[in-house]
């Protein structure tokens, strides 16, 4: 079953048939023209609702809603837990839950996108997969390419954390560290992919990346249908993850599986605030840097999708500093045993800021999407901790815990 019926340009509304395998609208001179996948969901409610409440093994539970032409590359993405966070809830005065994406096959939420992208690549007889990435999408696509036997070429910024550069190499991908930032890596990836007819899986342009990511919204809707949170808190880099989560959750509301939708709280780091600036109407800030590399995107191509999702949900955005992000990374570990990468910890920093500002009220409920594991970037955490205590080999030398 393939529910896809059209690809619609979010800028001009021009519609294309999926058989074209077009990634962007040609009417925008390479700027904008992002496409949104449209579906015929007649009959989808019966197919999906029948399994609600019966557990979620992986994202393919929602295959009737996914544009994969019957192909389904399975590596175990999805089916991640929704955890209570009692200590954080007490400290913040807000009921906090954590959608923990760290257990995906390559350690991040991007595996949801890669599952759908590689499935479409197989259906389209593609031979080489490529993407530009700040790290997590690179590792994810490489892992899924290895699973399918397809070649994979990755473009990353020169300063990508070592762990995120090594991981796709282990999967057998060719990794190119491009002099410059994510925008430079993205530009080179686009040019090479066009010249060599590689299948570009970059979330900045490939609309099917969003379709895989939207399954986190499906899962959240199913897992929280008895008590929908007031807020879903999501870190924003390119904007596609937040937009996808909203699309998935809203679909389940439209199918009658949940009765209401949450508001979105999008979080950006001080060094990369483009979506926040656009949504709030604030003057665009000069580009900077952030240690939260997964959301370090200066010119997010999915900003319009993200802003529409924020507006549709009655949501809000917040900007946090690197210090607040790193403090939140330590707090997540100390309070709930969650070791998250900085971009994921940004959700807690953002929630704390929103509570302080009164945007999130006392007694509200909020679900933080923990998008990736801290094991991807141990260097950023090194400054947060005191280090290992060296002691003599005698019991008396070992102090009691403080």
Automatic annotation (TrEMBL):
Keywords: Amino-acid biosynthesis, Lyase, Pyridoxal phosphate, Threonine biosynthesis
Broad class of enzyme this protein falls into: lyase
Record carries keyword Protein transport: no
Biological or metabolic pathway of the protein: Amino-acid biosynthesis; L-threonine biosynthesis; L-threonine from L-aspartate: step 5/5
PROSITE patterns xref list: CYS_SYNTHASE (PS00901)
Family named by the database record: Belongs to the threonine synthase family.
Protein function: Catalyzes the gamma-elimination of phosphate from L-phosphohomoserine and the beta-addition of water to produce L-threonine.
The protein, known as: Threonine synthase
